[in-house]
Amino acid sequence: MVETVKQPIIKVENLNKKFGDLEVLKEINLDIYPGEVVVIIGSSGSGKSTLLRCLNQLETPTGGKIFLEDKQVNTEETNINKVRQELGMVFQQFNLFPHMTVLENIMVSPVSVAGRPKDEVKQKALELLEMVGMSEKKDQYPLMLSGGQQQRVAIARALAMNPKVMLFDEPTSALDPELIGEVLQVMKKLAKDGMTMVVVTHEMGFAREVADRVCFMDNGYIVMDDSPEKVFSDQHDNDRLHSFLRNIG
Amino acid sequence: MQFDITIVFEYIPFLLEAALLTIEISILAILVSIIVGLIIAFFKISKFRILQKISDFYIEMIRGVPLLVQLYVIYFGLPQIGIEFDAFTASVLGLGFYAASYVAEIFRGSIQAIPFGQMEAARSLGMSYFKAMEKVILPQALRHSLPPLGNQFIITLKNSSLCSVITANELMHSTSRFASVNFAFLEFLLVASVIYFVMTFTISKLVNLMERKLSVGERRSL
Ligand SMILES: Nc1ncnc2c1ncn2[C@@H]1O[C@H](COP(=O)(O)OP(=O)(O)O)[C@@H](O)[C@H]1O
Ligand SMILES: [Mg+2]
């Protein structure tokens, strides 16, 4: 899919994560290239969230290496706050800040962390709100919005930091079915605009349509990492994947 | 002997002046308790065992000893080792450190009541722990702390009457002085009670008002 010089933007080498005695991630190797959309699927508890959260160090890996471009992320010397500015994250539960308006939610980090001028940030925030279709709600408080609207604001908030990669952890799983479409729509637009995305989702339609690669996780391993055509076909003999896809319908 | 309320009238300006001092002492004490309480609360939620222990020790110790004893220690005890405060300062510190043991738990409770996703979202946007506390966690937590803080303020204001024994010239001190000079305890205590009640009642109404103002937007939709 990507024709330019192949230099991964994220490189994961032999990643391992244990919670106490529980080994949740095992020998994970993953390269993500600029502009790629990588969808991660797998049953509940297979380690998808943990993998995503290791990428931006919300979890500390117990072994292996993670690189963002050529910098190793999981070392003592890394300024993790700087790294996280390059990696936008969207959560299943939106996690908007309820005491701030939509606009304030988007502006708080660019202004107070990145130290960008307020006017410029506001301009950018308004553009992003336009992009996610939330312009007229800019002065509302999050709890007055529907789940789908909140998630679109959360996407805009992450984008306002100008991240190089966007991480999505089941962004539509907490939404009523009729609200899923509007969020996927925004994500498709992002993908089309060339954003590098790592998406954990159960929306197989999205994976089929948008993903460059689909990774299937099972029991802490990435057991398959291939094109959606291959993953969603009969051309492989992974029984676990077949049964997973059957169960998810 | 008979009940004659008119005897109090000429003292009312002095009583009001003393009430003003009561308010001053209470406000400063609650400010002390907010600062100390915030520090103790941060100790308690920090991941360092030793800080948690210090916080536990502070809370247990302060709560386990009567306030009156603590006021005596500060005003009469400490000068023996060369630390001297005037009655006003001793009152503010005594009441403040005492209230801090309750305020700390108020803050800890309301900080921990904020869903963990808030901290994660803030950190994922590149905020440091302290920036996330400042911008995201504390503004929400302080809002939730407001009603219990208001109650703590009222308790502190009432506790300040104890400072009369360390000669702080607040409302209770003046009241007992005027009462004994005139042999009119019931009259002066009645008036003092009314003044205390008006102060606490007003504060409790103000707190309600503030609470409603602050929660605009946040909870209106619920
Ligand atoms: N903070 C944690 N402490 C202990 N165990 C955890 C923690 N987070 C996740 N786990 C465990 O790790 C496994 C993988 O979890 P997760 O990555 O959330 O899976 P998925 O996102 O694929 O559903 C699960 O068994 C889960 O219970
Ligand atoms: Mg998950």
* Integer tally of domains of chain B: 1
Mean pLDDT across all amino acids of chain B = 93
Q: Identify every distinct bound molecule in the structure, by name, code or SMILES.
A: adenosine-5'-diphosphate, magnesium ion
- Give the distance, in angstroms, between the N- and C-terminal Cα atoms of chain B: 60 Å
Order of helices and strands of chain A: EEEHEEHEHHHEHEHEEHH
Low-confidence parts of chain A, pLDDT < 50 over ≥5 residues?
none
Radius of gyration of chain B, rounded?
A: 21 Å
The helix content of chain A, as a percent range, equals 25-40%
Largest interface: A-B, 29 and 24 residues
Instruction: Please count the beta strands of chain A (DSSP E, at least 2 residues each).
Output: 10
Q: Please, could you describe this protein's structure?
A:
The complex is a heterodimer of chains A (249) and B (222). With 249 residues, chain A is of the alpha/beta class. Chain A is 36% helix and 24% strand. Chain A is built from nine helices and ten strands. In chain A, strand 4 (63-68) and strand 5 form a beta hairpin. The longest helix of chain A has 16 residues, at 177-192. The longest helix of chain B has 34 residues, at 12-45. The mean pLDDT of chain B is 93. Chain B is mainly α and 222 residues long. Chain B has nine helices and no strands. In chain B, helix 4 (67-77) packs across helix 5 and helix 7 (129-159) packs antiparallel against helix 9. Chain B is elongated, with a radius of gyration of 21 Å. Chain A binds chain B through residues 56, 58, 81-82, 84-85, 87-89, 91, 93, 95-99, 101, 108-109, 112-114, 141, 143-144, 154, 157-158, 161, and chain B through 115, 117-118, 120-128, 131, 135-136, 139-140, 143, 217-222. Residues 48-49, 170 of chain A line the site of magnesium ion (MG).
